[in-house]
Structure formats: structure tokens, C-alpha cells
Design goal:
Shape: elongated
Number of strands: 19
Strand content: over 45%
CATH architecture of the largest domain: Roll
Largest sheet: 6 strands, mixed
Radius of gyration: 24 Å
Helix content: under 10%
Number of domains: 3
CATH topology of the largest domain: SH3 type barrels
Distance between the termini: 57 Å
Low-confidence stretches: none
CATH class of the largest domain: Mainly Beta
Length: 186
């Protein structure tokens, strides 16, 4: 696949196709046809500590990230340290010499994140003047909707309200974005 770069002959930022790879890369400008060498920098990696929360527990991982990658709060991060399961997570905070919302990986000492591949959804069910709380482990991409029926501890309920992480009350949301679900017993 052609890569866009600046051609030293025609001075245009245009697609170039690779002729020869390896240590001495040669490319051809698709605009003017000139062939010229190009130096590609091999990305340096930075080992970063990642603390991933899953419900009430947290696990520490050590992951290698390209040092120039820009990380930011809210970004999805696949954590694979090669020793345990792969965890899909969402960055909640970044630590450099202080807490920041955005930084290059080379500046980061710790990534704080929450697992979003499987999440614990808190459900409060109201029945005859009493509310009972439950926790359900579900896939993070599962969609919950107001009006939907569910079951908890053998009792049926209907969802009446959903609160999302951004503080709104949507009519439907992904499990990974939900703070709490309220329901009424059928």
C-alpha cells in the first residue's frame, strides 16, 4: 500500500511505493517517478505499569508501548503483558510526575484503567417498598434498555431507569458505560 511522504525531487507530499525494504529503504514517488532512499525510525518501546480495575479488584501489569504514542483518559487500551489474559480496558488516569489526562507513553510511569471487556453492572430492584441490590457480570458491549426485562435471583424485573458514567439517564446504554440500573419487580 502506498505511503504518503514528501518527495525531495518534486517537493510534493504524495504517495510513494516501496521498491526495497530492509535497512536501506528505497521508494518511488507516484507523482514524478523519482526513486530515493528513506530512513524509517524503528519505534522505541517504553515499559509502563498498568493497574487495571475489575469491579472491586485490581491487577498490575507491565506493558510495552511505543514511546511516542499519545495516551489520554477515555482511550481504549488492550493490555497484553504476555503472561496473563488479554484485557480490554479504558484509561481512567495517567501518572507522570503528577496525574494528567494526556501524555506520550515515554512520560508515563503508571496507567490507571478499568476493564471494559467484562464489567459488573449494579442493579437495584424495587418491590413493595423495598429495594434489593444485585451485581451482574456481563460483556462490556451488552446493551441494556429501559423497558427491557431481566432476572435476578430468580425474580423477574423490568428496567425503569439507567444512569450512565457521564451522569445522564439514557434510554439505552452499553454495560461498560453504566453506573447503575433501576428496575421494578414484575
Amino acid at each position: 500500500m502506498p505511503e504518503e511522504m514528501l518527495c525531495p525531487s518534486c517537493g510534493q507530499f504524495s504517495p510513494h511505493s516501496e521498491i526495497k525494504g530492509g535497512q536501506k529503504n528505497l521508494v518511488r514517488c507516484q507523482q514524478c517517478g523519482d526513486t530515493h532512499p528513506v530512513v524509517r525510525e524503528k519505534p522505541r518501546l517504553k515499559t509502563v505499569r498498568a493497574i487495571i480495575s475489575t469491579g472491586a479488584t485490581s491487577c498490575t501489569y507491565h506493558i510495552d508501548l511505543p514511546s511516542r504514542d499519545l495516551l489520554h483518559v477515555g482511550q481504549e487500551l488492550v493490555v497484553d503483558d504476555g503472561k496473563s489474559d488479554v484485557v480490554i480496558s479504558e484509561i481512567t488516569s495517567l501518572e507522570t510526575d503528577r496525574r494528567v489526562i494526556e501524555a506520550e507513553a515515554r512520560e508515563v510511569t503508571t496507567v490507571w484503567a478499568r476493564a471494559v471487556d467484562q464489567v459488573e453492572v449494579k442493579i437495584a430492584v424495587y418491590h413493595r417498598g423495598k429495594t434489593k441490590s444485585f451485581k451482574e457480570l456481563v460483556l462490556g458491549e451488552r446493551i441494556f434498555s429501559v423497558g427491557e426485562s431481566g432476572r435476578a435471583e430468580g425474580a423477574g424485573y423490568r428496567i425503569v431507569k439507567i444512569k450512565s458514567r457521564d451522569g445522564t439517564f439514557p434510554s439505552q446504554a452499553r454495560a461498560r458505560d453504566i453506573v447503575r440500573i433501576w428496575g421494578r419487580r414484575d
